[in-house]
Amino acid sequence: MKRILFILFTTFFVGTVFAQQSLYKNISWNTAIEMQKHGGIFLDVRTPEEVAQGTVAGSANIPLQELSHRTKELQKGKPIFVFCRSGVRSQKASALLSSQGFTVYNIEGGFLKAPPASAFK
């Protein structure tokens, strides 16, 4: 009986670890800017109040708390470059989107690490 419980626990634990692996990739702003030139969108998952203080020109804004019911606004065939203020919410958004079949890149450091606007041209 103990052996069966051990096997079940081990199987559950290993399955959980593999299920938590990222399906998205963390990238720098420079890499995101270069990749985005070939297609895709920047997705800002901050609140509208935060976006009003500045964002990446041309980026879409879907706050993290609304993302699960607004994914139909995004195209699955195009890469999505996700950012927030510092990188925490964008990781959550990237995990959600990648689990739904989107091609997702999480931008490390968030908007706080974004280069000047001139870098996006």
State the helical fraction: 25-40%
What is the molecular shape? globular
Got a strand count? 5
| H/E element sequence | HEHEHEHEHE
Q: Report how far the terminal alpha carbons are from each other.
A: 65 Å
Q: Extract low-pLDDT stretches.
A: 13-20
What profile does the largest beta sheet have? 5 strands, parallel
The rounded Rg comes to 17 Å
Judged by helices, strands and strand pairing, the structural class is: alpha/beta
Q: In what order do the strands lie side by side in the largest sheet? A: 1-5-4-2-3
**Residue share in β-strands:** 5-15%
Number of helices: 5
Question: Averaged pLDDT, please?
Answer: 88
Fold and architecture overview:
This protein has helices at about 1-20, 30-35, 50, 65, 90-100; strands at about 25, 40-45, 60, 80-85, 105. It has about 120 residues and is an alpha/beta fold. Strands 1-5-4-2-3 form a 5-stranded parallel sheet. Strand 2 (about 40-45), helix 3 (about 50) and strand 3 (about 60) form a beta-alpha-beta unit. The radius of gyration is 17 Å and the shape is globular.
Task: Please sum up the structure shown.
By secondary structure, the chain is of the alpha/beta class.
Keywords:
121 residues, alpha/beta, five-stranded parallel sheet, 38% helix, 14% strand, globular
Chain-wise SSE layout:
Layout: H1 2-19, E1 25-27, H2 29-36, E2 41-44, H3 48-51, E3 60-61, H4 64-67, E4 80-83, H5 88-99, E5 104-107
Parallel strand pairs: 1-5, 2-3, 2-4, 4-5
